[in-house]
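hey can u run this one w/ zinc ion bound, need the structure tokens asap thx
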Amino acid sequence: MECFNINIITSKGMLPVRLGIKGGRMASFSTIGAADVKPSLALIPSVIDMHVHFRDFDQRNKETVASGSKAALAGGISAVCDMPNTIPPVADKKTYLRRQDLFSKDSVCDYLINFCVFDEYSMSQAASVDPFFIKVYLDETTGSYILDEALLEKVFMLQKPIALHADHSGMRKAIKFSKKYSTPLHICHVSTKDEVMLIGKHKDNNITCEVTPHHLFLSGIYDVKPALCTKNDRDALWAALGGVIDIVASDHAPHTSDEKEKGAYGVSGIEAMLPLMLTALNRGQISYETFYRCMHANQKRILHARGRDFGMDGGSRADFTIVDFGDSYTIDAKNFYSKAKHSPFDGMSVDAKVVETWVRGMPFFKDGEVVSGARGKEIGRK
Ligand code: DOR
Ligand code: ZN
Ligand code: ZN
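ok here u go:
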């Protein structure tokens, strides 16, 4: 058994503990004195980024599964949930199996794979695959996989969990169908106060939602969908974090610098998310309770609701990230591991640096590099 002492981030604050890891799982856990841990280091249990676009297939110039998963580990993320608006889209069984195969060969972090339904054919194929989410685009985005709203009800009739990209009116319709068919609905990138109020009014156990760091931290002009909103909207997003808004997800949407200059939508965000949220925690902008919920506990709840093995307590997977609050730095996209080396967060100072990312009891990222032998796996059923 491998044992070490460290401060662990909990919903109530930092807790100095001695951890024991065996066979990729947490084997023992005991509290110790604060004098026995290095004060600046902290461990965050299992961070999964529930919304990334790793491109590949025909857009390897933007990002590959290899480069994106490496960027994930560098950002302290031990697993990702991959979006299907690739070229070709993950919208038929054959391409879904091809995506699984590609990830199993090239991903250095663990993963979940989504499936896109945007027409009658992809809908008919959805029954024969077992994705984490069926992604439905109702509103403008990258790629042209927008579902005709007349087909929306039919997708909910499949009763498979849906992740939704939509504006306010699309959200309203999806919420109605989620309730009618008891279909789990995850609403992506909530960006306005009105959306928070709409979701808050109708939320039930089947409805979850996420916010991105760029919608939390930024206003102004940057090419991204949905657009950045006002300070008033952002205040509502922060206030809803860990409550109406379940989780933070990056919506990492890499494009080449050339394409960005021409207005492509998306933020290269996977490496900035955790440092930014740790900074909000460190500066008292959010509580430990909120941080713990929106960066770990609610992701765990969503995965467990779908029968997936996740989380590191009580004999579960030893996935975690070690960060150093003694190592503040300025975000500079030139240093990203992602192929997309541009960021609206450039120049922002953050209070903590990712030191190590562990997956299933092994350090996969350490000393600024992916450890040899790091190999991602699909997060399976329990
Ligand atoms: O800005 C965005 N970029 N929003 C999306 O919904 C899609 C994403 C992409 O795939 O580029
Ligand atoms: Zn989207
Ligand atoms: Zn997206």
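Residues 288-305 form the longest helix (18 residues). anyway lmk if its weird
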